[in-house]
Amino acid sequence: MRENLEESAEAGTPVGGVSYAEGPDGLRLPLIDIGHPAFRVALDDAALERMGEAFVEEQVRARGSWPRRLFDRFVLPRFLRRSLIGRGLLAAQGATLDGLTTYLLKLGPDHLDATWANELDRRIAASFPGLSLRLRLQDVAELLGAALATGLARAPDRPLWLVSLAGGAGMESLNALARLQRIAPASIAARGVRVLILDPDLRMTDFGRTALAAWSAPGGPLHGVRVELERAAYDWRDPESLDRILATIPGSALVAIASEGGLFDYADDAAVATHLRSIRARCPPETAVCGTLNSPGRAGALLNHGSRAAVRPRCLEEIRGLAATAGWVVVEARERPLNTAFRLERAGG
């Protein structure tokens, strides 16, 4: 399968329904489509729980070995510098994991091109944390798609705006649209759709544009859908910028907002609450908000202990309480060993 995928990357044409687009640093990347068997994570809760337990056992065993601790501290960084994904993980020290590294992890081992990926890249992408990132994207896209399906049925004539906060290439929004195109094409066939990606990394938002162009071509999952993509530099530490951006959305629009691996994973409580208050004030009452959390449970704690990124683990009850202070309620959630995806609605309807 890998050979076919690499051949399609060189030719620039879809093979087996998988499309490609040029990403940062000139990398030609497969576009993650959660509706395609090559990317879909098809594991039940019991299987995920077993994998989570195995991950915990492996981490505990490794941490209890002083040779392993010495290896992780002094030797592993040298190996990671030889790997594209590894260098991204090292660069996340005290900060966020960059969009390209996150995207490469979500591709999985079989979709990493041999021209720029090595065996260590594939081992990292095949890890339980890598699988969890793929599942996180899938969960958010499905929650977002379900919320949109309900809203679109109630408002057949309104334009649709999807806002991706700290969204990288906005693949959760594009996948939600592709899912709607598969299961309810009439709901978006004649509707104006706009995807607005807010992210400081404009290289990844540019990749979102090329991804949309590829998916809009004949044979792509969004062919025939009138989708426009806009991007804007964005910093969640500047809440006034979000107010200005949201103010540009027409009052007649149907709006859905998502932050997969972004705002709720990294920002402090004050920033999260400020964002939710701004969305409540600026967006229509039926606006849905989907996001993700880093789990503070045992598996998540072990991962975060060894992680260099400045994540802020939160449990579902914490986000319930935080959302309530800003006028929102959690209406749906998917709790996994390493993360949780959730959907918010405005409190009081």
Automatic annotation (TrEMBL):
It comes from the Bacteria. This is Uncharacterized protein. It comes from Anaeromyxobacter oryzae. The lineage of its organism: Bacteria, Pseudomonadati, Myxococcota, Myxococcia, Myxococcales.
